[in-house]
Write a structure and sequence with these properties.
Rossmann fold; about 5% strand; TerB-like; eight-stranded mixed sheet; membrane
């Protein structure tokens, strides 16, 4: 709320100044308010950040196109392009702090440094496409400029309000409808005033892209009648369709029309009723009778985004598996758990031959449902990949989070996406908790081609149940859910959850605590620096302002928390 009030206060001030001097051009660009050193520093900071965040030849095209477009957006001369391209290719990284200081000394940014975040957001959305890599970059640059990520959320929500059509549900009372319209009108006004200070055209109403949807009543009073006349509602609808998918229905609009391979059930359930420019999809790993009999139950407190979904998949098989796991633990296994640990996990020798005979007698009870769900989770993950690749969610960044077999769904989703063209810029962050998948780094390398932000592997060293049920799935018991993944990449973040998770079933029961541990915002607790689209949770960052002193991609690579 503090960020929203700060933004509204600044926007109100800008509007008063605009009304006081009507003879002036209503749209003063950020590029024209910053001095040339400031514009150069802004572009250079983005170039250096791009090189650190997205190194490698496969990201070269994105880095080059982004920096070229941003140089033009800032109204910088073409003569600076070679230098900016060099920054984006990894040269000059030692200038990160210098460029940051130059930028922060600009008079307009001393009053409101959030303008840089706003300008980057406006640039990134100008074509109705919000690339996950662009959002990760915005988060990184904002952090360098000491701008809270909460402020980016406020900007995104305000922009979203400006894009929404003013339609009210028929069931609403006149008073509720009136208040909602007033609120939307205010938010649109604030956003329009802010946008009047940024951008890359002489009048934002004439630049297309973002300007197209800004057809709200009152636009003429801010950008002038000529600018308002240039805003096309048809173009605005097109941008909305691009960002939010067909009919703006998001993922709830997707229904599996016919059986796909072995998959019998695949549906997205809404966890929240809001809309947002970035979305979160949660994937449950099993079901069981009682409190955790629904897919949504474990995620009731999660508030990573205003628009969150839960994937409902193969409930019949997941219920059978969950009840079997629960019975296994609540029955005789409780009496022998310590014995199993003594002879297996704690000794470091985890093979089928070392498990106690009494525990192995239960194998026939668990092996069949577990094996069935292992296979189906892989198929569901591949299907999810093609749903995301087809942009059913619209042109927006997606964060995936799942536990147990839900994490396995995510793993196979990313593996499938990595084999397809145009798979970059869709996935922002992924969180895999207690994942029953291969733990060797070579199997995870492909994920870095798809994920723009963080790849979080949450594991528990003492999860003997996962070790037991996975024993027949692989000759090598190198399981990601039991140990860190030693991948040398800045995206990889390993988090030891052994102090939170005592056993595999705790991933569902302790989800609220786990979410906070990995930096995901919840309804009860909102971390100061959440992991929303960011590499910069307290655990994942050390000294990224000095990242330029290291080779791109080396800092935090494969870091274990």
């Amino acid at each position: 709320m503090a960020a929203e009030e700060k933004w509204k206060g600044w926007a109100s001030k800008q509007h008063k100044e605009a009304e006081h001097g009507r003879e002036r051009e209503p749209c003063v660009l950020l590029g024209r308010q910053l001095g040339e050193p400031g514009r150069f520093a802004c572009a250079a900071l983005c170039g250096i950040s791009l090189a650190w965040l997205f190194p490698g030849n496969e990201q070269s095209s994105f880095r080059t196109e982004f920096i070229k477009g941003f140089v033009k957006w800032l109204d910088l001369p073409d003569t600076v392009l070679p230098a900016m391209t060099a920054f984006a290719d990894g040269l000059g990284g030692e200038g990160t702090e210098i460029f940051t200081e130059i930028l922060l000394k600009e008079a307009i940014l001393k009053e409101n440094p959030l303008l840089i975040t706003q300008d980057l957001l406006s640039f990134s959305l100008q074509d109705g496409y919000y690339d996950a890599r662009a959002r990760v970059l915005i988060c990184h640059v904002s952090w360098l400029l000491r701008i809270p990520l909460e402020d980016l959320e406020v900007l995104e929500e305000s922009l979203l309000e400006s894009l929404k059509e003013q339609k009210e549900e028929e069931s609403e009372t006149a008073e509720v409808s009136r208040k909602k319209k007033e609120r939307r009108k205010k938010l649109k006004r604030y956003l329009l005033i802010g946008l009047a200070t940024v951008g890359g055209g002489t009048v934002i109403g004439l630049t297309g892209g973002l300007a197209a949807p800004l057809v709200a009543a009152g636009a003429a009073t801010i950008i002038g009648s000529a600018g308002a006349a240039a805003l096309g509602s048809t173009a605005g609808i097109a941008v909305m369709a691009s960002l939010f998918g067909a009919a703006g229905a998001g993922l709830t609009g997707y229904k599996m029309k016919k059986r796909v391979g072995a998959i019998e059930e695949f549906e997205f359930l809404p966890l929240t009723e809001g809309k947002q420019l970035h979305i979160t999809i949660a994937i449950t790993g099993w079901l069981c009778t009682g409190k955790y009999g629904s897919f949504t139950a474990p995620w009731s407190s999660m508030l990573h985004s205003s628009e969150q979904y839960c994937l409902a998949w193969e409930s019949k098989y997941l219920m059978e598996l969950g009840n079997t796991l629960d019975s296994l633990l609540n029955g005789f296994v409780n009496m022998m758990a310590q014995e199993a640990l003594k002879f297996t996990v704690l000794s470091g020798i985890v093979t089928a031959l070392t498990w106690p005979a009494s525990l192995l007698t239960a194998a026939s009870v668990i092996d069949n449902p577990w094996g069935v769900c292992l296979h189906r989770s892989a198929e569901v993950g591949k299907h999810l990949a093609h749903i995301l690749l087809s942009r059913q969610q619209g042109q927006r960044p997606v964060t995936l989070i799942g536990f147990s077999l839900g994490a396995r769904v995510i793993y196979f989703c990313l593996q499938e996406m990595a084999q397809e063209k145009d798979s970059q810029g869709i996935i922002e962050d992924v969180v895999l908790l207690g994942a029953p998948v291969e733990g060797e780094a070579k199997h995870w390398k492909a994920l870095t081609r798809v994920v723009s932000g963080r790849i979080i592997n949450g594991y528990c060293r003492g999860d003997w149940l996962l070790s037991f049920v996975y024993r027949t799935s692989s000759v090598q018991l190198n399981v990601a859910g039991l140990q860190p993944v030693d991948l040398d990449d800045r995206r990889m973040v390993n988090m030891d959850l052994s102090s939170v998770v005592n056993g595999h079933l705790d991933y569902m029961k302790q989800m609220d605590t786990i979410l906070k541990a990995v930096g995901i915002k919840t309804k009860e607790c909102q971390p100061e620096e959440k992991g929303s689209g960011s590499l910069f949770s307290p655990q994942a960052k050390k000294s990224q302002r000095a990242a330029s002193s290291e080779a791109p991609g080396e800092e935090n690579a494969g870091k274990e928390e």
